[in-house]
């Protein structure tokens, strides 16, 4: 038999076997209007369909809850979904069956989204083959499920604004965020010093220890960095690059420590306060202030070699045990309201990323 026909029959056979063996119900977290996620999201059941020619049926294994997912549901994010919408942008899924013209994916493979806005908070989904990227099944579920947003953001911000050399230094606030944890780990792999700023908390010693174990050179609270002379006294070189996901005083403070002609990249606004650039920083130190949005970068570099190279480098680091998922808690799908409420807590200090375990 021609191998292609054989594969098609094999895949079709696997699909029918799969549908016979499982419930044909798909459970998804859907919303039909913007609002507070705990109020507008519902667990909805639909019938499972067959994938068309270029489509893939996947079983979603794990899908994180990111701040952008919450903001999208609230209607406060620039990406507006079509209603009814399934929440979530990231996941790791297993290929269950493929349409007859699918050529690059096979059953049993693990895949992650190659594009945003797919709606990943679901037990099963049918996606276009071109919207998925295979990842090694050796990569842990938490690492794979959280790969496309935060590690990529950290990677691009470290690569695209300042040409850093080994021994250079970067500074960041929100240093315990998922992006922050990724920055520390990439800096360690690339021999760059990273200084992390976090808000003070009762378990601060434990947090500092953890971030240093990931690769942070120094971790200071917002109060400590204000009084610190570590750059003035040359204990560390002045940072050439700063990352800001907080805004307000925290952003102004980290920009104050930048070297002349340094760059501050703002990628989030967790405090909801604006970024204030000091006049002296702009005039006398020639500090540049930039923004970064991963969604835009991915659209503009969709099929670029840079993007392929980034994913392969990140996957290699994960497989080598040099890059781990952010501190997280796996939450069964049934408990999605608790997870969303915890992720929404604007007082902060959640201390972990919530990842929906879609098969429990
Ligand atoms: N531009 C992009 O492309 C892009 C990509 C990825 C992420 N982001 C943004 O980056 C930020 C972090 O995302 P993530 O997924 O890494 O977040 P995360 O893991 O959920 O961590 C949230 C971080 O925000 C801090 N935080 C929360 N509320 C705060 C407040 N009121 N004031 C100061 N800090 C506060 C937390 O610190 P505590 O522990 O002190 O609460 C923690 O460090 C978000 O704003 C997200 O939207 C942007």
UniProtKB/TrEMBL annotation:
InterPro entries: ADH-like_C (IPR013149), ADH-like_N (IPR013154), ER (IPR020843), GroES-like_sf (IPR011032), Mito_Enoyl-ACP_Reductase (IPR051034), NAD(P)-bd_dom_sf (IPR036291). Residues 36-355 form the Enoyl reductase (ER) domain. GO terms for biological process: fatty acid biosynthetic process. It comes from the Eukaryota. It is an enzyme of class 1 (oxidoreductase). It is found in: Mitochondrion. Keywords: Fatty acid biosynthesis, Fatty acid metabolism, Lipid biosynthesis, Lipid metabolism, Mitochondrion, NADP, Oxidoreductase, Transit peptide. GO terms for cellular component: mitochondrion. The keyword Nucleus does not apply. Belongs to the zinc-containing alcohol dehydrogenase family. Quinone oxidoreductase subfamily. Its EC number is 1.3.1.104. This is Enoyl-[acyl-carrier-protein] reductase, mitochondrial. Its main location: mitochondrion. One of its GO terms (molecular function) is enoyl-[acyl-carrier-protein] reductase (NADPH) activity. It catalyses: a 2,3-saturated acyl-[ACP] + NADP(+) = a (2E)-enoyl-[ACP] + NADPH + H(+).
């Amino acid at each position: 038999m021609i191998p292609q026909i054989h594969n098609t029959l094999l895949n079709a056979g696997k699909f029918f076997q799969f549908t016979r063996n499982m419930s044909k119900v798909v459970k998804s977290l859907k919303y039909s209007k913007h609002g507070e996620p705990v109020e507008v999201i519902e667990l909805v059941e639909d019938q499972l369909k067959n994938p068309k020619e270029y489509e893939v049926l996947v079983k979603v294994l794990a899908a994180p809850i990111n701040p952008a997912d919450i903001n999208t549901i609230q209607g406060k994010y620039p990406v507006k979904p079509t209603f009814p919408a399934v929440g979530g942008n990231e996941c790791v899924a297993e290929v269950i069956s493929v349409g007859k013209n699918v050529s690059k994916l096979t059953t049993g493979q693990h895949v992650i989204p190659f594009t945003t806005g797919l709606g990943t908070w679901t037990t099963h989904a049918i996606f276009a083959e071109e919207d998925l990227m295979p990842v090694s099944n050796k990569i842990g579920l938490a690492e794979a499920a959280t790969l496309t947003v935060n590690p990529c953001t950290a990677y691009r911000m470290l690569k695209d604004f300042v040409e850093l050399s080994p021994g250079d230094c970067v500074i960041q606030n929100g240093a315990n965020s998922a992006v922050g944890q990724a920055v520390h780990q990439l800096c360690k792999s690339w021999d760059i010093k990273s200084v992390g700023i976090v808000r003070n908390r009762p378990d601060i010693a434990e947090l500092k220890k953890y971030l240093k174990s990931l690769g942070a050179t120094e971790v200071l609270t917002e109060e400590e960095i204000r009084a610190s002379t570590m750059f003035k006294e040359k204990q560390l070189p002045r940072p050439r690059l700063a990352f800001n996901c907080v805004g307000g005083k925290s952003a102004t403070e980290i920009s104050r420590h930048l070297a002349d002609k340094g760059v501050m990249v703002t990628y989030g606004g967790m405090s909801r306060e604006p970024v204030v650039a000091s006049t002296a920083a702009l005039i006398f130190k020639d500090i540049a202030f930039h923004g970064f949005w991963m969604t835009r970068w991915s659209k503009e570099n969709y099929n670029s070699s840079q993007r392929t190279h980034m994913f392969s480098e990140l996957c290699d680091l994960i497989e080598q045990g040099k890059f781990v998922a952010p501190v997280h808690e796996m939450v069964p799908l049934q408990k999605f309201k608790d997870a969303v409420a915890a992720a929404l807590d604007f007082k902060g200090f959640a201390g972990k990323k919530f990842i929906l375990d879609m098969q429990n």
